[in-house]
Amino acid sequence: MSSQLFSPFSLGALSLRNRIVVSPMCQYSAVEGNAMPWHRVHLGQLAQSGAGLLFIEATAVEAIGRITPGCLGLYSADNVAALRAVLDDVRSFSDMPIGIQLGHAGRKASSARPWDGGQLLPASQGGWPTVAPSAVPHGAQEAAPQALDARGLERIRNAFVQAARHAASLGLQAVELHCAHGYLLHQFLSPLSNQRDDGYGGSLAQRMRYPLEVFDAARAALPASIPLGVRVSATDWVEGGWDLEQTLAFAQALKARGCDWIDVSSGGLSPKQQIPIGPGYQVPLAQAVREATGLPTMAVGLITEAQQAEAIVAEGRADLVALARALLWNPHWPWHAAAALGAQVKVPPQYWRSEPRDARGVFANAAIGQR
Hints:
Elements: E1 9-11, E2 14-16, E3 20-22, H1 37-46, E4 53-60, H2 77-91, E5 98-103, E6 131-132, E7 146-147, H3 150-169, E8 174-179, H4 184-189, H5 204-221, E9 228-233, H6 244-256, E10 262-265, H7 283-293, E11 297-300, H8 306-314, E12 320-323, H9 325-329, H10 333-341
Parallel strand pairs: 3-4, 3-12, 4-5, 5-8, 6-7, 8-9, 9-10, 10-11, 11-12
Antiparallel strand pairs: 1-2
Helix pairs in contact: 1-2, 3-5, 5-6, 6-7
Protein name: NADH:flavin oxidoreductase/NADH oxidase
InterPro entries: Aldolase_TIM, OxRdtase_FMN_N, YqjM-like
Cofactor: FMN
């Protein structure tokens, strides 16, 4: 049996052993944007998963762009030093390619951690003023964000550039821009949150303008050897909002600028969203982007079973499958998928002896000797 899920793939100049991607997963466990021991354990565990590529969680390009006070950042020298220490330890035990997702939460910043309720934090509880394309709050009962002026747009664009340079200096091998889930760049795209009357609002072309400027600036800041992709919410799931047709136009514009992949998610912009959740519910969106643009696509969302993931790739619905919750539930998901699909994964020698008798050969190059 020849598994397509476990076949090699390339994103730009980056070669992957297989099509399984560890999706960016917020941990809400940083201090002032700095990676902590939790990140060492979390990323270290996922770096032994057998996936083809590991993404570090959504990482803020400036302090007020953090989703919560516990979110990771890459905007200060301390942030860079803390993440470098974590990466040095992880890389000493794994050669899995590691990328990072860079973002800015915009009006969805200054939130409490999910286990603390996840709502907008007032200043009295450690919150801060937020910014957005327009002074339109995320929730009707929330304070309105400050609409960004020209100086603010320039500051944030430069912050993305600086964060991209930091990523390159850390030896990270891929960068993804977060244009999804209702965060700042998505806020510019959607007519529900972007009500500007200048050159950055109104028509589709003008709503796409700022995210495309950020992409161009980040691409120029990164060496050609580091691929750059974009995560999108393909639809707001709200009538009159951002939708698949607009996403396809955005993806075509990104392709023309040298985008290396589109990571296709959905929703997150409005509390009014009506999402038809079910197994693989976002895969048709990824397939539509792939067919319309020819760009490599990642499918994500309630993909939990090996045969399900295999079919997505084998049937050409997406080029890669990105897993998040499934890998938190079972950090060795790719091991078990390889066993089910007759494939192999690279596993650290410390774990070779765990290979079950009925799955012999799943661990590539495993050999154990003993007196």
